[in-house]
Amino acid sequence: MHPIADQEAASAEGTLIKSTGDCRISGTEASPAYEAVRAPVHTSTYLRPTPQMVDALKDVSAATACAKLHQVGITRTFIDGPVPLHREPDVKVTGGAVTLQFLPQREDVFNGAEQEDIERKTPLWGVLESIRPGDVLVISAHGSHFTGCLGDMLVRYFKLRGGAGIVVDGRVRDAARVRALGVPIWCTGVTPHYASQTDLFPSAFNVPVGVGGTLVTPGDLIVADEDGAVVVPQRNAIPLAEDSLLHQDREAFARRRLDEGGLLSDYYPLTGESMTEYLASRSAT
Question: What does pTM read for this prediction?
Answer without folding.
Answer: 0.81
